[in-house]
């Protein structure tokens, strides 16, 4: 099966991700859980953030299997948002994620996975 569209518009996505990160940081600093879902989730800690990542990941998987492209995009946005909140809840900077991605550049996914301890 071939993909319908290329993964284009990296500048647009980068701008949206930067805005999202700034918004999450602002909500975390404000800490008003009564008016911010982000602050409320962060106040519950990493376990709650992890549960939301798992929930949203499942919803994305279901959407990929049987829903519209618009729904897939929406669920992917939910996953990205909750991943960012989870990272913030653990104090893991986006620069650390960027470093992990950069370290994998030029390496096949098969080779990268085989190099991880405990994987086949």
UniProtKB/TrEMBL annotation:
Record GO biological process: L-histidine biosynthetic process
Catalysed reaction, written as an equation: 1-(5-phospho-beta-D-ribosyl)-ATP + H2O = 1-(5-phospho-beta-D-ribosyl)-5'-AMP + diphosphate + H(+)
Pathways involved: Amino-acid biosynthesis; L-histidine biosynthesis; L-histidine from 5-phospho-alpha-D-ribose 1-diphosphate: step 2/9
GO molecular function: ATP binding; phosphoribosyl-ATP diphosphatase activity
Spans through the membrane: none
Identification of the protein by name: phosphoribosyl-ATP diphosphatase
Keywords: Amino-acid biosynthesis, ATP-binding, Histidine biosynthesis, Hydrolase, Nucleotide-binding
EC numbers on record: 3.6.1.31
Pfam families in UniProt: PRA-PH
Upper taxonomic lineage: Bacteria, Pseudomonadati, Pseudomonadota, Alphaproteobacteria, Hyphomonadales
Enzyme category, top tier: hydrolase
Family in the record: Belongs to the PRA-PH family.
InterPro entries cross-referenced by the UniProt entry: HisE (IPR008179), PRib-ATP_PPHydrolase-like (IPR021130)
